[in-house]
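Annex B.
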Amino acid sequence: MDIKTASALRRLRLISAPEAISFLLLIVCSVLKRTTDFNAVPAMGMIHGVLFVLYVLFWADAWNRTKWPVKTAALYFVLSVLPTGGFFAERMLRREAEASLIAARARKEGVVNA
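Membrane protein: predicted structure tokens.
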């Protein structure tokens, strides 16, 4: 994996958890708006919207660089629209990055899979 691909995956991984947290906070703010006089939905909605747009941009860049199959790319996109999906995406991306790092080190040392 080249450095640009690794950077794209890292950006997507780093934005996925904050995007999930903002989604959950937006849901909490929506409930509070309906049940109390507290209304943080406009501010939280804008924060979540910015994070979601960043997630989609980073997802598209990662998909372009990694050449994921459509099924894998669709999974990462669907995880972005689920309230806790960003946490699962972050975990999956971390595992993918670790596996590619191990594979790169093995190639560098001349280890061949049998």
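Helices lie at 3-35, 41-66, 70-80, 85-109. Residues 12 and 108 are 26 Å apart (CA to CA). Further annotation is deferred to the next reporting cycle.
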